[in-house]
Amino acid sequence: MASEGASRRATGLTRRGYQWVRERSLPIAALVAGSVLLVVFYFPVAVVFLEGVVVDGLPSLAPLRGVLTDPFYVGVLADLFSRPTAVGDHLDSLFRWAATGFSRPSLGLIGFTGYQALLSTVASVAIGLPGAYILARYEFRGRRLLRSLTILPFVLPGIMVAIGFFAMFSTNGPLNALLGVFGVGPVEMLFTLEIIVLAHAFYNAPLVARLATAAWEGVDARTIETARSLGASRRRAFFDVLAPQLAPAVLAGAVLTFVFTFRTFPIVLALGGLEMATIEVWIFSRIQQLDLTTAAALAIVETVISIGVLALYLRFESRQYGAGQAPTQIDREPLLPSLRALFRPSRVAISVYGVFVAVLFIGPMASMIAESLTGPNGLTLSHYAFLFDRQSGGTAFQIKPWPAVRNSLLFAGATLVIALPTGIVVAVRRVRGDRGGVLLDVLATAPLAVSGIVLGIGLLRGLVFGLPLPGGWRLQVTGGVAVVAAHAAATYPFVVRNVAPAVGGVDLSLVESARALGASRVRAMVDVELPLAVAGIVAGAAFAVAISIGEFNSTVILAEGGDYYTMPVAVERYLGDRTLGPATAMGTVLLAVTSASFVVIDRVGGGRGDRL
Amino acid sequence: MKRRTYIAGIGGTVGTGLAGCLSRDGSTDDPEETDDETTLTVATYESFLDGPSTSPGEWVKTEFEAEHPDVTIEWKTPENGLNHYIQRFEEGIEFDADIYLGVNVDDLIRADDRLEDSLFQDLDRDAVGNAERLRSDLDFDPQGRVLPYDTGYISLVYDENEVSSPETFDQLTQDEFSGTLLAQNAQQSDPGQAFLLWTISEFGEEGYLDYWQELQDNDVRILGSWWDTYSAYLEAERPMVVSYSTDQVFANRDGNDMSRHQIGFLEDQGYANPEAMGVLAGTSDQQSDVAHDFFDFLLTPEAQGRIATLNVQFPAIEGAELDDEYDQFALEPPETVFFDYEELQGNLEGWVEEWARQIAG
Predict the structure, then answer these.
(1) How many CA atoms lie within 13 A of A609 on its CB side?
(2) A273, A471, A557: residue with CB nearest B79
(3) Which of residues 254-293 of A touch B (CB under 8 A)?
(4) Which of B19, B25, B51 has the CB atom closest to A577's CB atom?
(5) Nearest beta carbon to residue A290 from set B78, B83, B256
(6) DSSP assignment of A98-140
(7) What is the DSSP annotation of B248-279?
(8) Which of A2, A279, A300, B188 has the most CB atoms at less than 10 Å from its CB?
(9) A525-533 contacts: CB < 8 A, separation 24 or more?
(10) Which helix (H) or strand (E) segment is A355 a member of?
(11) Interface touch A284/B188, C-beta < 8 Å
C-alpha cells in the first residue's frame, strides 16, 4: 500500500500518530458518524418533538391524546384511546363488528397512510424482484450500465415525477395511444390510488431491485449445486437454499419502502388528490400555520409507527448475518443465446416484464425529456437556450445552471467521503454483532422514520436560528458543511443496508485466519472483508450520491438562500411561468449528470461488483 | 453580515468538524453602513427575482439605485416566506432583512395571531406620497402597517374546445362540468385558498361545505400545489383549472393556442389576492427612511406599470402606465371579491381546516 511507504518515510512522531489513528479508526469513524447524526438529525428533531410533549413549559400528553382520540386521524380507534379502560364497551363493538361480517373499518388519516404504504411496498417488491433476478442471472449487453442506472428515479424531484406521470399516463398520453393500437382503452389512470402506488414503485422498486441484485450476486453457487446434487429440485433448491440468502436484502428493501412511503409527500397530492391525503400532508399544513404542537404530535405518532416497523426488521436482520460462506458466484446465463431462444417461456416472460418496466420507468423519464424539447410549434431547443442565457446573462441573485450542477457534485462527493468510510465501519461492526455497531446502526436508521418536513423545521429552528448560549451568543450551523452533514445523515441507512449483507456474506474463517496470522482488526477489514464486499460498497456509494443529489428539504434550509443551491433547487425555480420547458430542461440536465456519476462510480469500483 | 458579530470558522463544533458559527445580536453596526451609504435588504418570494421569463427584481434594483446612488438593494428569499420572520421574532433573533415584499392578508393575520408585538413597524404614510393613489379596496391592513403593491385575481382557466364557458358556481355541479375542474389544496396553495374563500363568500359559512360536497360528487380534483394542477392542465388531463386571470399574458408570450387559455369569471367575479409590503420590526430609523422612499418609488405610475408587466399581476394604484400587451391579455373581472382582515381574522384557519377534513375524511 502507498500509505505504508509514506509512513516508513515519516518521522517517529507522525508514525506513532499514524498508528494511533489506525488502531482507533473504528472508534473514530463511529464518533464521526455519531456526531453527524447528533448535530444534523437528533438535535433538530428533538427541538420540534419537544413541542409535542411540552405545553407551557410543562410535560403534557395532551397534544398526543388530541391526535389519538380524534376519529379524523385514527378512525374507529379514537374511542379506544379516549376510554382505554372501558373494556366491556370495546369488546361489545368488536362483537358487533364481527356480527356485521368484519366490514372494512375506517382507520382515519393514519390508517389510510399505512394502507397505501403497504400497497406500495407490495408493488415495489413485486416489480423490483424480477428485475433483480434478470440482472443477477442473465448476461446481456448493457447489463452493467442498466444496473448502474437502476436508482436513477431516486434523484428526481417529486414535481418532475408528477410531470412525467401526467405526460405518460394521461388520457391522451403515449400509454393510451399504445393501448389504442391493441384496441384497448383509453384507461383513466391519473388521480387514483393505483397511480400513487405506481409512482411509489417508480421510486422504490429500483431500491428493492438494487439491494436484491447485490444479495443475489453474493449468493454462493456451491450451496445450490450441493443441494441439487443431493437431489433437490430446482424449486426446492430455490426455496430452501436461495430464498433464505436473499431474504434479508428483500426484507430490507420492503421495510425501507414501507417507511419511505409512510411519510410520502408531495407525490400523493400531485397524482392523487387531497382525498388521498397522508399524515405528512397534515404535518405540512400544521407547520404552515406554525402550529408546531399538533405537527409535532402527529410526527411523533408517525415516527413511533415507523420505528416499530424498523425495529421488527432490525431484530430479524441481526439473526441473518454472518452465515459465512466463501462466495463462488452463480454463473450468468446469456439472455439471448440465439433468436430462437426468444420463444422460450422464460424469455417471453422477461419480454413482458421488459415492456412493463419500459412503460413505468422509462416512460415518465422519456416524457419529461420530450417535454424539454417541445414548444408550441413542435420540436425546439429554446428551453436549453434558456439555460445558457441564464448562465451567461443571469443577475447575481438569480439561480444559474452551472453552479447548481457544480454544487450538487461537490456535495455528493463530500457526502461520499464522509458517509462511505464511516458507513462501512458501522456495517462491519454491526454485522459482527458488536453492541456498539448495533446501536450505531439503529441510530443511523432512525432518520428514515422521521418526517422530512419536521426535520426541515428542526434544522431551521435548531441550527439556522442557532443554539442560544450565555451572553447573547448563538451557535449556528449552516452553509455548505452543514448541507454535506445533512446529506451524510440521510445516506447512512442506505450505505449500511447495502454494505452489511455483502460483508455478512464474507467467510468469517478468512477474517479469523488473517487475524491469527497477525493482522489487526482494521487490517483484516481492509484487506480481507472489504474486497470481498465490493459489490455492496459500490451500491452503497451509488445510493449515497443519489440521495445527496436528490435531497431538497434540508438543502434549501441550511443553504439559507445563499450560493449553495443544487440541481433540484434549480429545477423548482425554473418552474416559474406557465410552461414546463425550462424546468424539464434542467431536470434533463439533472438526469444526465446523475447518470454519468453512477457510471463513474461503477467503473471506479472496477466493475468488481461483477466478478469477485 | 449585518448588525451582528460573527466569529466564523470556529469549526470543530461538537467535535465533528462542522462549520459552526457564533454570532451575537445587536453588538456592532454593519461596517459598510455609513451616513452616506445604505444597504436596504428586501426579503421577498423567489419569482419576484427569478422567474424563467420575466421578473421585476432586476428592474426595481437598477432603477431605484439609479435614483438613489447612495443606496444598495440586497435581496433575500427566505425558504418559508414570512413564516421565517414570524419564527425569528418569536425566538427573539434579529432579522437579516429590513422590509418584506409579498405579504398576503392571511400572512399578516397569522403574524398578528402568533406574536404579541407587531412584526411590522408603523408606516408614516405621509412619507409615501404615492400611497394616495392606492386602490382602497386592496388596502387590507386596518392598522396601515403594510401597503399593497399588486394584486392577482383568481379565476378559472379553461379550454374552450372541451367545455363551454363556466358562468356560475351552480353550473360547476351540473353534469356538463362533471370531471372537468382542477383545484388546489387550500392548506398549501394561495389560489386554492382564494377559491375556497370565494365559495364561502358565495354560499356563506353555513353553506360552503355543502357546495363542496356537490363539487366532489361532480368529480372535482383537488391536488396539492398550483403547479400540480397547472401541469395536469397543460397535459390536457382536465379542461379547467383554478388559476389567475393573467393567464393569457403568458400564453401570448409563449405563443400558445389561446383557445386553451380562456378565462372564466364565475358570477362575473374574481377573487382578489393583493400582495403588500412593510418595514420589519427592528429596522433602524435610517433604513426605515430609505424603505419609505423605496415604497414611494414602487407606487409610482411607471414602476406600477413595469412591476405589473414583469410580475404579471395587476397594479395596486389607479392610473399605472401599462403597456399594450398587458392591457390586451390581462383580464380584470367585472367585480372583485375579497375578504378583508377583520372578516378573516379568527375564521380563516377553521374554515380551511374543516374544508380539508371534509375532503380528506
Answers:
(1) 30
(2) A557
(3) 266, 269-270, 273-277, 281, 284-285, 288-290
(4) B51
(5) B83
(6) HHTT-PPPP-HHHHHHHHHHHHHHHHHHHHHHHHHHHHHHEE-
(7) HHHHHHHT--GGGSEEE-GGGEEEEEEEEEEE
(8) A279
(9) A525/A428, A529/A428, A529/A503, A530/A424, A530/A503, A531/A608, A531/A612, A532/A327, A532/A502, A532/A503, A532/A505, A532/A506, A532/A612, A533/A499, A533/A502, A533/A503, A533/A505, A533/A506
(10) helix A345-357
(11) yes
Distance from CA of B14 to the nearest CA of A (A): 7
Residues A6 and B63: their CA atoms lie apart, in Å, by 61
Domains and CATH numbers, chain B: 2-151+274-329 (3.40.190.10), 153-272+332-360 (3.40.190.10)
Count interface pairs A-B at CB distance under 8 A: 203
Q: Residues B137, B108: contact at Cβ < 8 Å?
A: no
B25–A375 C-beta distance less than 8 A: no
Question: How far is the C-alpha of A337 from the C-alpha of A358, rounded, in Å?
Answer: 22
A41 in reach of chain B (CB within 8 A): no
Q: Where are the alpha helices (DSSP H) in A218-291?
A: 221-229, 234-237, 243-262, 267-271, 279-288
Instruction: Indicate the burial class of A144 (C-beta count within 10 angstroms; 0-12, 13-18, 19 or more).
Output: middle
Residue A282 CB: number of other CB atoms within 10 A? 27
Tell me which residue in B251, B255, B357 faces A377 most closely, judged by beta carbons.
Answer: B255
Task: Please list the pLDDT of chain B residue by residue as tens digits (361 residues).
Answer: 333 344 433 333 333 334 467 776 554 444 445 567 899 999 999 999 998 888 999 999 999 999 999 999 999 999 889 999 999 999 989 898 999 999 999 999 999 999 999 999 999 999 999 999 999 999 999 999 999 999 999 999 999 999 999 999 999 999 999 999 999 999 999 999 999 999 999 999 999 999 999 999 999 999 999 999 999 999 999 999 999 999 999 999 888 999 999 999 999 999 999 999 999 999 999 999 999 999 999 999 999 999 999 999 999 999 999 999 999 999 999 999 999 999 999 999 999 999 999 999 8
Contact across the interface for B110 and A478, Cβ inside 8 Å: no
Here the cell at position B52 is 424563467
Which grid coordinates belong to B41?
Answer: 435588504
